[in-house]
Design a protein that fits this description.
With about 260 residues, the protein is α/β, with parallel strands linked by helices. It has helices at about 15-30, 40-50, 65-75, 100-130, 155-170, 190, 205-215, 225-235, 240-245; strands spanning about 10, 30-35, 55, 85, 135, 175-180, 220-225. The structure holds NADP nicotinamide-adenine-dinucleotide phosphate.
Amino acid sequence: MNAAAQRIAWITGGGSGIGRALALRLARDGWSVAVSGRRRDMLEETIRLAGGKIHAWPLDVTDLAEVRQAVSRIEQQLGPIQLAVLNAGLGRFLKLDELHAEIFAEHVHVNYLGAVHGIDALLPAMRARHAGHIVITASLAGYRGLPGGAAYAPTKAALISLAESLRFALEPEGICISVCNPGFIKTPMTDENHFRMPFLMDVDAAAKRMYRGIRKHKFEIVFPLRLWLFARLGRCLPYSWYFRLLRGPRRRRRAPHE
Ligand SMILES: NC(=O)c1ccc[n+]([C@@H]2O[C@H](COP(=O)([O-])OP(=O)(O)OC[C@H]3O[C@@H](n4cnc5c(N)ncnc54)[C@H](OP(=O)(O)O)[C@@H]3O)[C@@H](O)[C@H]2O)c1
């Protein structure tokens, strides 16, 4: 297959978890895939698992210059990126004692600005071609505030709003944008969680659902369906019901000014 006919994808966070599983799926389907992340050894392992066909571009998504340079080099060496999956992220569910400004900043820089840097780097060439598909990995955690989610959930809510807002500008340019909102998926990220994760999904099943959504150019890609239904319902509930549902019944403490 010549370079012009080859489908090129770029995935950030492709050295583990959802990004790796999606990279392997795309490679199996004949895509030429570039994977990015900070740890070269993890990217090399993705390549090994694919038996070639995948290329590693180590970078830190918080570094705009690095991201711009990587996109430009990928396009020079592999060809025009048709599909970019901005998936790099970190997520910790934290107790009140663990919350300080540095933790918030880290989540914003990696999860939100990391995706913004990818979009900035991709858009000039995609706009010139009037083609391309950008997928942002957000989360069902972005639907509403969650216990322990003060640092993580707002970044995912921001990504959902970013994708919704950009859609108005990108659609007339011929560029497709999607937001992927997974529930709990078994990856190194969720291996750190010490609470019950409802409807925890296998990472290969998640990648399969994600790729299906990408192929259909769906705006929102969600899985697992059962958790999405709960999250969707939770979004519509009045605050009093929502808070009670998530924390269970508890005696209300009076605020000092009451
Ligand atoms: N697992 C879930 O249940 C779940 C649910 C909803 C949404 N998500 C989202 O799915 C995405 C993938 O997460 P995952 O579950 O697959 O976890 P994961 O295995 O920990 O993957 C996160 C990836 O992001 C990369 N990354 C982190 N910081 C980076 C940085 N500064 N620059 C470049 N790459 C960076 C990591 O690679 P390096 O450390 O090598 O850089 C890693 O490969 C995240 O955005 C996450 O928020 C996950």
